Structures are given as C-alpha cells and as structure tokens.
Amino acid sequence: MTDAVCARGFRALRARDTFAHMAPTSRVRTLPLHTALAALLLAAPACFVFNRGSKASPPPAVDVAEGEIALTVTNHNYLDVVVYVLHDGLQTRVGTVTGSSSAMFFLPARLLGQGREIRLLGDAIGNDAYASTDILVVQRGQYIEWTLETDLRRSSVGVF
C-alpha cells in the first residue's frame, strides 16, 4: 500500500516526521531586554514634549447667556406638555414640549427669585394629568434636566 500512495504523489508518514523531531529552519533573533528598555526610555519623553500637557477645557455643550439657566425637558409622554415655573408665588409659562420629544429652554434670572428657589410644573394638554417637582435651588452655572415619563407622576428632575 505504501508504494501505491507514493505513486500518486503523496508521501508516507514516517515516525521521524513528528514536531518533536523537526529542526528549526531559521531562528528569530530577539532583542535583549536592556536594548528594549533603553528604546522605551528614549521614546517615552517624546510623548510629553510634543503634547506639552495642553489642558484646554472643552467648549460647553450649550452656550448659555450670563444669568440664564438652561432647562432641558425630555417628554416620554404621548401628550404635549406645557411647562411652567413656579417662583415667588407666581406661575410663569415657559413653553410647550411636544409628545415623545425634547426641548431646551433658557430661564431668565428674574424667574429664580430672591432665594433662587423654583418649582417646575408640567400640565398635559388634553388630560388632567400633571407633573410637579419639589423646590429646586439653582445656583449660577447650573442647569436643569427634567424627564417626563409616560405616567407623569413618575417624572424625575436633576440639577447639575
């Protein structure tokens, strides 16, 4: 059978043709450890030299005028919601957020009142459901994110 296999161009497997008996045809030269360490120590300072430690602050996401407070309202409800700010015993309409969308409003500083305390009220159009927040104390440079859920009573607010 060995002769028949050799006649077709295939070589018969012999005992010495295992990986343990094969000799390497070429050796890969490895860099000595001290050479690699020297190359690393020479290349590392270049990262600092070319970067120069520039720490420019990123531009703000939204350009807010001085004294104004940004209010972002995300409406997950299917109804349009009218947004009001309650301040100093007054109710001031801010705007409308359509259903399943979001809107950004800029509150003038006069709406913050003396103690910089406000409450937000969201009144659904075509329904008697509403959402209101607790008292929010907003300082300069902060912004408000209000998320209105499908059930307006489960809405959440954050001052950042």
Could you explain the architecture of this structure?
Strand 2 (81-87) and strand 3 form a beta hairpin. The model has no long low-confidence stretch (mean pLDDT 80). The strands form 2 sheets. Strands 2, 3, 5, 6 and 7 form a 5-stranded antiparallel sheet that branches. This protein has 2 helices and 9 strands, in the order H-H-E-E-E-E-E-E-E-E-E. The protein is elongated. The protein has helices spanning 2-7, 33-51, and strands spanning 69-75, 81-87, 90-97, 101-107, 117-124, 130-132, 136-137, 143-148, 156-159. The longest helix has 19 residues, at 33-51. 16% of the residues lie in helices and 32% in strands. The chain has 160 residues and is of the alpha+beta class.
Keywords:
single chain; elongated; 2 helices; four-stranded mixed sheet; five-stranded antiparallel sheet; alpha+beta
Topology:
Elements: H1 2-7, H2 33-51, E1 69-75, E2 81-87, E3 90-97, E4 101-107, E5 117-124, E6 130-132, E7 136-137, E8 143-148, E9 156-159
Parallel strand pairs: 1-8
Antiparallel strand pairs: 1-4, 2-3, 2-5, 5-6, 5-7, 8-9
